[in-house]
Each structure stands twice: as C-alpha cells, then as structure tokens.
Amino acid sequence: MHTCAHFVRRFLAYFRGKAYFCNVKTTTQDAMPQLKTRQLLVDVARRLFAKQGLEGTTMNDIAEASGKGRRTLYTYFKNKDEIYSAVIDGELMRISTTFLAVARKQLPPLEKLVELIFAHLSLIKEAVERNGNLRAEFFRNIWQVERVRKKYDKKEHDIIAKTLEEGVQAGVFDIDDLMLYTDIIQACAKGLEVPYIFGRLGIGMNIELTRPIVTKILKRALGMQELSTLNPKL
Question: Which residues of 210-230 are buried (b: 16+ CB within 10 A; e: fewer)?
C-alpha cells in the first residue's frame, strides 16, 4: 500500500513537472507567431498603401489581403492610422539600421560625416520611392511622420555628435559648441530631404560632383580651412 501511494505521488509529480516545462516552452513559442503575424499585417498594409494610397486602402482590404481576417487585424491595430504609423516605423527602422552600419565604418571624422549626410539623404529617398502612392502621404502628413521619427532622430543625433567629438579629439575640427553644431548639421540634412528626393538639389549634378562641394562646405563650417593650410593632408 505504501509502495502504491509512493508510486502515485511520483507519477503525479512527474506530470506536473512536464506540464510546467511545457507551459514555459509554450509561452516562449507563442510570442514568435504573434510577432510574425504583426509583421505580416504591417508588410501587407505597406504594399497596399504603396499601390492604392492611404485613402484608397481600408482595414477590410488589409484583413483580406493578409488572409488573417478583421478580428486578428483589430487585435493588433485599433485603426488605419495606427497601422500606418507602424508602416512608417518599419521604414525608419530600416533606415536607422543602415545609418548605424555607416557610422561603424572606420573612417576619418570628416569623411564619415560626409558619408553620413549622403547616407541619410539616399536612404530617405529610397524609402519614399519604394512606397509608390504612399509617397504623397508622407508629405501631406509630415507631422505624423515626424512624431514616429523622433526616436530615430535621437539616434542619428547621437551618431553625428559622436563623429564631431571624434574630430575634435583628433584635432581636426575646431568648433565651439558640440551640441549646437550637431543640431545644425542634422537640421540641414533634414531640410535637404525634399529637394533631394525630387531631384532639385544640384540639378544636373550627381553624387560624385556634389560630394566634394559638400565636403568643402563642411571643412569651412568645422573650422578646418585654417588647419588645412598647416597640414595639406587634412
């Protein structure tokens, strides 16, 4: 009798343990499909927005095209504005990832700064162009884009500041206020986005022609004009 009771206790303990580990495993595994479903909905929405425009796309269109249905769509997004913000966030994340890769390159501070400015403009242009009919919406709802963009702007601001700091420490940049210079350079890059996207910046000129001019402007702005007379290699 004692042996039988002991066996039952061990039997139940074994299955309780199995159930516990199954629950832990299930919880981890459940998170992955949720992330995949959300990303699928965002990808489908982006393609529909690019093809039909924001106004021409309904939540029903997204639900049908994703094959997930309205109930699933509304589980992840309350309305079309929310999924539109997620689409913008996805595009900005792609830009930020590439921008960070440029920042990690082992380049002299001035060369890296020029590289960052052209990467910024090229990536924004690529994102806008790849989204077809959604392009006009980016410019119409610029404040919504800016709201989503804040956290990525902060990352970009930090990268520019770090590059300037590297130049100061190397003795090649002569600037008075690091944060003010960072603000100005970032604001200039953002201000050039629209003319760059529409080909109105240096009309008839390609990157190979504009890069030396941008480099020259930055040299003067960063106090390198005087330094270069002492060291022609700068």
Answer: eeeebeeebbeebbbeeeeee
In a domain, 41, yes or no: yes
Single residue among 20, 49, 78 that ends a domain in this structure:
78
The answer on 131 and 91 residing in a single domain is yes
Q: Contact 66/41 with Cβ under 8 angstroms? A: yes
pTM of the model: 0.74
Whether residue 186 sits in one domain with residue 171: yes
Residues 221 and 123 in one domain: yes
Give pLDDT tens digits for 119-132. Answer: 999 988 888 888 77
Tokens of 124: 């924004």
Question: Residues 124, 193: contact at Cβ < 8 Å?
Answer: yes
pLDDT tens digits along 181-201: 999 999 999 999 888 888 887
